[in-house]
UniProtKB/TrEMBL annotation:
GO biological process, any: siderophore transport
Keyword terms of this UniProt record: Cell outer membrane, Ion transport, Iron, Iron transport, Membrane, Receptor, Signal, TonB box, Transmembrane, Transmembrane beta strand, Transport
Database matches in PANTHER family: FERRICHROME IRON RECEPTOR-RELATED, FERRICHROME OUTER MEMBRANE TRANSPORTER_PHAGE RECEPTOR
Entry protein name: TonB-dependent siderophore receptor
Signal peptide: 1-39
Residues annotated as domain TonB-dependent receptor plug: 95-193
Domain (TonB-dependent receptor-like beta-barrel) ranges: 268-695
Lineage: Bacteria, Pseudomonadati, Pseudomonadota, Alphaproteobacteria, Rhodobacterales
Recorded family membership: Belongs to the TonB-dependent receptor family.
Length: 724
């Protein structure tokens, strides 16, 4: 049975004339890293050039720890290279001085590759494995350094809201922080953290509209525009939306989506900003192809489920607010609050094949569920910067809370078999009765402190501590029983960064993580040792990073599918991943842009068993030893009646991996993919873009349970975009 685990509930701005209100914001683990924003050449950074024109290029400086008040999260919307981070808020934190491996996928790269799903967004990110569940489209599936990644939006965990595919068009960028860090992120998985940075008002007139068409009857329209709302320039808005009507590559499929976001920001002074955002996401789709028989490769358009019982309806409204204030004495405040509501109903029929099957008749099962969730989460963070003699100090302290509740039911049963040589559908199952139905409540309270010290403009020391109190209560509505548990966990972090030159930094770090716990299992604790080096050459828009790491996870909890289809989480022991990562991004002369990387990861179950069977020494499922990717874009010289024209070509390699933790259900083949893009300017501010993913339509088995699941085939899309 191929069932991905259901996620566990987890735990501009101020106008360009002055952005001090953006200085302190945010603050999660990375913001507490040494705060340094290295400005690019004015000729390379149009955002900074605009700031210089109106005199806002002043810095809030504290020795070697300083923030560029002119940098904004949308400043790299025209670049595939991000030299600053905004994880957890809108503070510019230098990637060069951050003692961790970080990959940033900018809005420019998302548009360049026409990444329509989060899995597509992450395809060229070293150390990240995607698409290992193939045509299971219920969620976004990705692994970072071999483990599940914790997912955040604007620095606040998505928690119970994670059970939905996110909409990439809603975000300025996606930041991938490798290695768990619970000191400020809170309960998180050890592999890493994804932070989605939401589009917010820019305090200037800007916008775009587009329409696109493509393979599988894919059609969508979208818009993103904003402007000032008053003459004083203290009030601004932004509106983002997308409507998608599409199918998937198998017969009788659906992939429709609706998304809307509206945001208003008020900056009465350069020291204060208050913003409100509402957004609404709805997806009406088919969740699963039902899988393919195990005996050979089949055409992707074949469908062995049930057309009348293959549905997923997801709806999620969200309201959020943020307040930022600079007290103008080294003290700054950032506060964030978000409320979300989620409903998710799905059901499908899938193959239950065996390798020793005789004949063409294959058993089938059906599976589905209904869930609702509510979540209120917020934080308040104070940051104080000062000088202690010859030492620059930055102290961060904060509180965080989360209150969430979920109601879930699931059903599973044997269904009618199907002849895969001559499929005849029998309709939707009747008399469905839930096997499980439960209610859960989660409450989290957290305190955290982090200290950064800079010595002699070269050595930066970072230390952090966080304590989380977690209360969980679950009621089994079928059995009428109730369980409760509380957890109290402390996590630590320490790092040293040495600035070899203004272009090169080296670091060593130790971080701890505590994964969101569940009743009946011990909290998963992780620790990671990492050393790395980063190079940002002067005069060139480029960034090169390299790192090696040793990541260990205790009390490993894995999802196990029981005979009745229920997914149970079991503690199996200890696991470890050792590896290295290299990533390079550069915008070179003559219109050439490149980004790519390589990662090696060696996953191992150190000790433990799954359902009584030892997995000691085995490798993880779906984690390849090798990943590599490279994308090149070349802008052609302007000739003829057309304006700017560019062509892009990308190559991806995914090494072989096991299909299960027992390492006895086969391995995937090595995977090779080519992607391509072509963009031309039809008129001023009007572009035509064509993208082809999986250019040669390579077909691989990427997941295997009781059936095979294939990678996505070739897709072609054409988009017409008008911007201003």
């Amino acid at each position: 049975m191929q069932q991905p685990p259901t996620p566990i509930p987890a735990s501009d701005h101020a106008r360009r004339r002055g952005r001090a209100g953006a200085l302190a914001l945010g603050c999660t683990a990375l913001v507490a890293f040494p705060l340094a924003a290295i400005a690019q050449d004015a000729g390379q950074d149009t955002g900074q050039a605009a700031a210089q024109e109106d005199g806002s290029s002043d810095f809030y400086r504290l020795g070697t720890i300083f923030i560029d008040a002119s940098v904004e999260p949308d400043d790299d919307a025209a670049s595939t290279i991000a030299t600053e981070l905004w994880t957890g808020g809108k503070v510019a934190t230098s990637v060069l001085d951050t003692p961790a491996t970080v990959s940033v996928v900018t809005q420019k790269e998302i548009e360049l590759r026409n990444a329509d799903k989060v899995e597509d967004v992450l395809e060229y990110t070293p150390g990240v494995t995607t698409d290992y569940y193939g045509t299971d489209d219920r969620n976004d599936y990705y692994l970072v350094r071999g483990f599940q990644a914790s997912t955040y939006r604007d620095g606040l965990t998505l928690g119970s809201m994670r059970g939905v595919r996110e909409e990439p068009y809603a975000f300025e960028r996606v930041e991938v922080v490798k290695g768990g860090n619970s000191t400020l992120f809170g309960t998180s998985d050890p592999g890493g953290t994804l932070n989605f940075v939401t589009k917010t008002p820019r305090f200037e007139r800007s916008g775009e509209v587009y329409g696109s068409f493509g393979t599988h009857d894919h059609a969508e329209i979208g818009f993103d525009f904003g402007d000032l709302l008053n003459e004083e320039g203290t009030l601004a808005y932004r509106v983002v939306g997308k409507v998608q009507d599409a199918e998937l590559e198998y017969d009788t499929s659906q992939d429709d989506a609706r998304f809307f976001l509206g945001s208003v920001a008020w900056a009465p002074t350069s020291a204060t900003e208050l913003s409100f955002t509402i957004d609404y996401l709805r997806r009406d789709a088919t969740p699963n192809s039902g899988g393919y028989p195990l005996d050979r490769l089949y055409d992707r358009d074949r469908f062995f489920g049930e057309p009348e019982f293959n549905y997923q309806n997801v709806e999620r409204p969200t309201v959020s607010a943020s307040l930022r204030h600079d007290f103008d004495n080294g003290l700054r405040l950032n506060a964030n609050l978000r409320y979300s509501d989620l409903s998710d109903d799905f059901g499908y029929v899938y193959l239950s094949d065996t390798a020793d099957r005789i004949g063409t008749l294959v058993n089938r099962d059906y599976y589905g569920g209904e869930s609702t969730a509510e979540e209120l989460i917020g934080n308040a963070i104070l940051q104080y910067d000062t000088r202690l003699g010859t030492v620059d100090s930055s102290t961060l302290a904060g509180i965080e809370f989360r209150d969430a509740s979920t109601t879930r039911s699931s059903f599973y049963a044997r269904y009618t078999p199907i002849d895969v040589a001559n499929p005849v559908y029998t309709g939707a199952p009747t008399g469905i009765t839930p096997d499980t139905r439960d209610e859960s409540d989660f409450t989290t309270k957290s305190l955290f402190v982090q200290q950064n010290l800079s010595f002699s403009d070269r050595l930066i020391a970072t230390g952090g501590i966080r304590h989380d109190w977690l209360d969980i209560e679950t009621t089994d509505l079928v059995a009428g029983t109730r369980e409760a548990a509380d957890f109290s966990e402390t996590s630590y972090r320490a790092a040293l960064t040495y600035k070899v030159t203004d272009e090169v930094s080296a670091y060593a770090s130790y971080v701890e993580s505590v994964a969101p716990p569940s009743i009946g299992t011990d909290p998963e604790r992780g620790e990671q040792y990492e050393v790395g080096v980063k190079y940002q050459p002067a005069g060139t828009n480029a960034l090169v990073t390299a790192s090696v790491y040793d990541l260990t996870k205790q009390n490993v909890v894995v999802p196990v599918v029981l005979d009745n289809g229920v997914i149970e989480r079991q503690t199996i022991g200890e696991s470890r991943v050792r590896g290295l990562e290299v990533e390079a991004r550069a915008e070179l002369a003559a219109g050439l842009t490149l980004f790519g990387g390589y990662s090696y990861q060696a996953p191992e179950f150190v000790r433990g068993n799954v359902r009584g069977v030892s997995v000691d020494g085995n490798e993880f499922a779906s984690v390849p030893n090798h990943l590599a990717s490279l994308w090149l874009t070349y802008e052609l010289p302007e000739t003829g009646p057309l304006g700017n024209t560019s062509i892009g070509l990308g190559a991806r390699y995914v090494g072989a991996y096991h299909f299960n933790a027992y390492n006895n259900n086969g391995e995937s083949d090595e995977q090779y993919y080519l992607d391509a893009s072509f963009t031309t300017e039809l008129a001023p501010n009007t572009d035509l873009q064509v993208n082809v993913n999986n250019l040669f339509d390579e077909q691989y088995v990427v997941g295997r349970g009781t059936s095979d699941y294939y990678n996505t085939g070739r897709t072609i899309t054409a988009a017409l975009r008008r911007s201003w």
